[in-house]
Write a structure and sequence with these properties.
Layout (H helix, E strand, L loop, with lengths): L2 H6 L5 H10 L18 H10 L5 H8 L4 H17 L3 H13 L7 H5 L2 H10 L6 H7 L4 H10 L1 H4 L5 H10 L5 H17 L1 H10 L6 H7 L5 H8 L7
Length: 238
Amino acid sequence: MSVILNELKKYASLKRKKSNEWFFKTDKGQYGEGDKFIGVSNPHVRMVVKHFSHLKFEGIVKSLQSKIHEERLASVLILVLQYEKASTIEDRLKIAKFYLKNLSKINNWDLVDLSAHRIIGRAILENILEEKIIDKLAVSKSMWARRVAIISTMAFIRKNKYGASLRIAKKLLGDKEDLIHKAVGWTLREVWKKDPKLCEQFLFAHYSYLSRTTLRYAIEKMEERTRIKFLKNKIKIN
């Protein structure tokens, strides 16, 4: 048993276990099929993360390979914390490369959403990684790698840079997975918060390729009249 799992078990509860198994869709045929939970809340996971914030890669990789969801989550959050605290470009590059090397273990939406923009997105912004890495991830056979691609661009949006988000969103418009539709819609909504006209132009230009889920997520914060026009495909962009 890893040191992380041993600590997590102190906070495990059967009630939380059952709740997490339902919430993360672990039944047969669902996206989280086979994922195992012991029932630890996110606040308690973060407490454990702080305790092991200086864990070496050897210890982190062991926990990343775990079948236990909360253990993988703790490992990912340790990497995020280490990246944010790293004082040199060399150390940040090592963490980013380690993250990419173990991407197959970052295999649920919360693991991706809590880490991709904070490691890969930041590494690209800081010129530690090349931006083309997210274009490569966007065409991966792995749904989670594709989600990493689009969520990574959240780091760009926060710096008022929208090109990468729109480019990756366009690549993913034909994706068959609902979790990708949601991620693309969420990203477009964040672009809209910063630059409504740019986002609306994108939605208008690619309307016929948008899944209903992507569209609903993207227009969620719009004024009701505009939102209804988009839903009915009666919008016009000057």
